[in-house]
Amino acid sequence: MGLGMQTPSSRELRTAFATGESAGNVALMEDPQEPVLLRVENLHKEYRTGSDALVLFENLNLTVHAGEMVAIVGESGSGKSTLLHILAALDTPTSGHVYCASTCIGKLSSKEAAIFRNREIGYVWQFHYLLPEFTALENAAMPLLARDEPRASALAKAEVWLRQVGLQNRMHHRAGELSGGEQQRVSLARALVTQPRLLLADEPTGNLDNRTAAAVFVQMEELHRTHRLTSIIVTHNVEFAQRCGRMFRLHEGRLEECQRTM
Length: 262
Hints:
Largest sheet: 6 strands, mixed
Order of helices and strands: HEEEHEEHEHHHEHEHEE
CATH architecture: 3-Layer(aba) Sandwich
Strand content: 15-25%
Helix content: 25-40%
CATH topology: Rossmann fold
């Protein structure tokens, strides 16, 4: 997780859901004909301790078109997770602006930001954060249940997404009865069940072994392609990053676009 952001507890995740918080080697390329979905302008983020300031970003800019799959790599502590939190309206910048379509995220009230997160953002953490007392089906439906969608409708939509990630035979198992890869697939279904405009994934394969990580990433590629998602993925896995349409390195507070070799 990023600087200044603590790992959420199960209780915090319940609150987040209730308020709306928190294929192969073919690279998924930008289509310049698609409209701009995300625009980051002159983003600055710093943390102050007394008279000292730790600057994470300085005049950071980024434009992402609808349908793109963008990877962000960088050293631990460089601010990758913090950047995703700002894009998801989970954190605020010191200065600068973030636009999702025509919405200026920084101008949203707390209530408006919560609604924005619940309806427009799908978020996948490095750890799955499934609620242990609920089944995979109930966990995947949680964002819909929390916004008071009828239970039958919410569970029906969650079932569709669990089938999309290959868990049709594991829907009624609780989190502790699932493998690590299965748990992360549930978290992916949970992120997409609201059909968000933007999918943000923070090291989604970081806690998995190599074989499982590769399978989960292929699943993300397939979902991105078949559902025309717009995805931003933070990862330390350069091979996975190379398979995205564009790859950026967060270095010394700025995003530098990298040349892909695949």
